[in-house]
């Protein structure tokens, strides 16, 4: 593992545990078993660390290889993957508003992620409609609104939770599926009940 990767991993760990505002470069150096000079050689300021973590986060998101040709079970697995991804960068998603106020460049990144995820969910919904799992909509803008709502809910939900609160994440999944359920066709509800072992009518 490279020195940069060690530094970033320890920074993320400390930011998640203690909050990015309270963690110093000295704290990161101690956790990484490096000198402060070694840390600042790679990242002169804490803001440089933040931007490097944001870039790493985007790379990690791309590596999830989220597919749009999925069934209901596949979508549920993707939602879980995204929750795990958010937990990995808990400090970021838990402080998105504060971070973009402090580091204005982060706003552009946040909008980019939101747009990409919204488009991803739109394509899943469209594929569900083609497979007659989702009810046909005469207005495609409704798909966009639904997809955007799910993305915004997921991106903001972690701000209401504490790191490691598994029950809260399960509650979010239930809320998302509660929203999606009313758009499922009879065929889709059949798949849903089969996968989740529920009998909702």
TrEMBL record:
Sorted alphabetically, the keyword list is: DNA-binding
What are the leading ranks of the lineage? Bacteria, Bacillati, Bacillota, Bacilli, Bacillales
Q: Does the keyword GTP-binding apply?
A: no
InterPro entries for the chain: Homeodomain-like_sf, HTH-type_Tx_Regulator, HTH_TetR, TetR
Q: Where does the record place the HTH tetR-type domain? A: 1-61
Q: Which Gene3D superfamilies match?
A: Tetracycline Repressor, domain 2
- List residues annotated as DNA-binding: 24-43
Q: Which Pfam families does the protein's record reference?
A: TetR (PF13972), TetR_N (PF00440)
Q: Name one GO molecular function term.
A: DNA binding
Highest taxon above the source species:
Bacteria
* Protein name in UniProt: TetR/AcrR family transcriptional regulator
Can you name the source organism? Paenibacillus sophorae
């Amino acid at each position: 593992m490279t020195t940069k990767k060690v530094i970033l991993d320890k920074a993320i760990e400390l930011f998640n545990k203690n909050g990015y505002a309270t963690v110093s470069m000295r704290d990161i150096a101690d956790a990484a078993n490096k000198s402060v000079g070694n840390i600042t050689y790679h990242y002169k300021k804490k803001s440089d660390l933040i931007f490097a973590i944001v870039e790493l986060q985007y790379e990690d998101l791309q590596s999830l290889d989220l597919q749009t040709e999925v069934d209901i079970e596949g979508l549920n697995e993707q939602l879980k993957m995204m929750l795990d991804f958010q937990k990995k960068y808990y400090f970021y998603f838990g402080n998105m508003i504060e971070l973009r106020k402090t580091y204005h460049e982060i706003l552009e990144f946040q909008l980019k992620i939101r747009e990409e995820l919204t488009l991803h969910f739109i394509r899943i919904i469209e594929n569900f409609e083609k497979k007659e799992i989702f009810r046909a909509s005469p207005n495609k803008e409704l798909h966009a609104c639904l997809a955007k709502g799910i993305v915004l809910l997921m991106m903001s939900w972690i701000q209401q939770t504490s790191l490691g609160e598994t029950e809260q994440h399960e509650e979010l999944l239930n809320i998302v599926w509660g929203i999606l359920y009313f758009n499922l066709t009879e065929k889709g509800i059949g798949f849903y009940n089969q996968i989740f072992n529920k009998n909702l009518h």
